[in-house]
Amino acid sequence: MPAMSNTQTKELQPTTQRVVFDDLELGEIALELDDKDPQDVIAWGLETFGDRAAFVTSFQIDGIALLDMAYQIRPDVRVITVDTGRLPTATYEYMAQIKQRYPKIRLEVHFPDHRHVEPMVNQYGINLFYDSVPNRLMCCHVRKVRPLLRALEDLDAWFTGLRRDQWASRSNIRKAELDHDHHGIVKINPLADWMEEEVWDYVRQRGIPTHPLYEKGYTSIGCDCCTRAIKPGEDSRAGRWWWEKDAPKECGIHCPIETGGFEHEVQAILGETHEQGDGI
């Protein structure tokens, strides 16, 4: 295991050979990383995977804290984000602000495939997600999950801002784990054992600008149509898909979701486009 140090600042080196771990190897590494600071975990990931690792962010507070930490280690880090086509205007403005603050990052913006979006919208409507949980999951899958799958295809590892205190489905995440939902690459979660206030303290101490919607009562920010400010006393993810009852507060990127009809409808849409030469 490479030495973990966050004292050096250097450029990412090209990596031609794949870096692959099995469950046993990565399990031992995860145990060693468990009590390490986020900066040490980031340093290990960048040293191990080079430019075959990327930070995936939607520009929320956790991802921005990670980006700032990584920038101090290697300014030219790869940063991936998915533009679903339904993001708030404030998110686009904030993305530009962050790119200006961290000019050396290699920002990659990935979009949904129009050959998937068009048949979905034509068949179910532009706001299909309000009609049912399966429809919402279908929209998330087409607009978020599929683009991310494409973005991760050439990676051996990806960094996320997941924390164990965010939601029940995330309570057991490790700082490094094999992501069997994405071709067995390594998923690195440097903030896994941090609490929300620790993230905010870091961002304030560093003077990092935050997404403007936080000042309006938002605590979790996604698509404009599927996100609202929370009410006093509500859970921090209550503003996501707030009209749903007893449904998972997940889009499918970090937690696989099975609902029966959802998978059938998605396969129908993707199958139609595949016959037209989609290749995915």
Characterise this structure.
- The protein is α/β, with parallel strands linked by helices and 280 residues long.
- It has a single domain, classed as Rossmann fold (3-Layer(aba) Sandwich).
- It contains 8 helices and 6 strands, in the order ααβαβαβααβββαα.
- A 6-stranded mixed beta sheet has the order 3-2-1-4-6-5, sandwiched between helices.
- A hairpin with a 5-residue loop joins strand 5 and strand 6 (185-188).
- Helix 2 (38-49) packs across helix 3 (61-73).
- It is globular.
- The two termini are 35 Å apart.
- Mean pLDDT is 86; it is low at 1-10 and 272-280.
What topology emerges from the helices and strands here?
Layout: H1 23-33, H2 38-49, E1 53-56, H3 61-73, E2 78-82, H4 89-101, E3 106-110, H5 114-124, H6 133-152, E4 157-159, E5 176-179, E6 185-188, H7 196-206, H8 261-275
Parallel strand pairs: 1-2, 1-4, 2-3, 4-6
Antiparallel strand pairs: 5-6
Nutshell version of this structure?
With 280 residues, this protein is α/β, with parallel strands linked by helices. The chain is built from eight helices and six strands.
